[in-house]
Amino acid sequence: MESSRDPAAFREFEHTGWETASRGYDQHFARLTRQTVPALLAAARVAKGKRVLDVCTGPGMLARAAVEREAQVVGLDFSGKVIKIARRNAPDAEFLEGDAQALPFDADSFDAVVCGYGIIHVPNPEAALCEMHRVLKPGGYLAASVWQSPAPTNGFGLLFGAVKIHGNLDVPLPHGPDFFQFSEPEKLRTAFEECGFADVAVAGVDQIWEVAAPLGMITAILEGGVRARGLLLAQTEEVQGAISATVANGIVQFRSADGTYRVPMPALVGSGRK
């Protein structure tokens, strides 16, 4: 598994980004990423009475849904501003600030662990996955989601395709692990197995991001993203305009009868047993 070549700088970049973008993420991305919640909870066997850890909890969507299943839920994130939003959205869960790569819990503490799109934002994904394995009780399950690979028929394909055409991918940002290193089923499966998980399964989740205008996706990224936002802002103003225009033109193909744009944003959910 690829890790950051400068983990301290990358962590600071991510932390600063989420402290800034937490409200925008809740406003824009949450309506997309909550579509993965049922698959994650099912894959982790979350049920009444289970003690559940939600790593990289973000705005607390998974934590809230697990509480609704009458589980005992602890959510963890490294951003204090994110934690404030999660506490508001899921008042019956417990939330802590902490590092996914060094979880502040004893071994064999949780019946289930879930992680929604978190391992693509940490400097060392292998350390995070192995920590989740450590804190699980024997027989417990981890379920984690990632984005599927960019393609011309999905939103990330449009975005990164436009950057590749008009912009520069080699920009002065702290080096982070490949954002899509787990975006193929076999790669996600291998990551789980390397951290000791058994009965590993990977399933695709079809998701649709509804945006009101052709530039809605760009707006959401600039207001609620971190890595993609950093990539866009590192381009010249002229290049940013060309990227935005190309993405907007590509999104027109997803216009629905009611005038909204239904952009495919497929995900993968990996799961495994300790």
Could you give a quick summary of the protein structure above?
The protein is of the alpha/beta class and about 270 residues long.
Task: Describe this protein's structure.
- By secondary structure, the protein is α/β, with parallel strands linked by helices.
- The protein has a domain of 187 residues: Vaccinia Virus protein VP39 (Rossmann fold).
- It contains 11 helices and 9 strands.
- The strands form 2 sheets. The chain has a 7-stranded mixed sheet, with helices on both faces.
- Strand 2, helix 5 and strand 3 form a beta-alpha-beta unit.
- Helix 1 runs parallel beside helix 5, helix 1 crosses helix 9 and helix 3 packs across helix 4.
- The two termini are 20 Å apart.
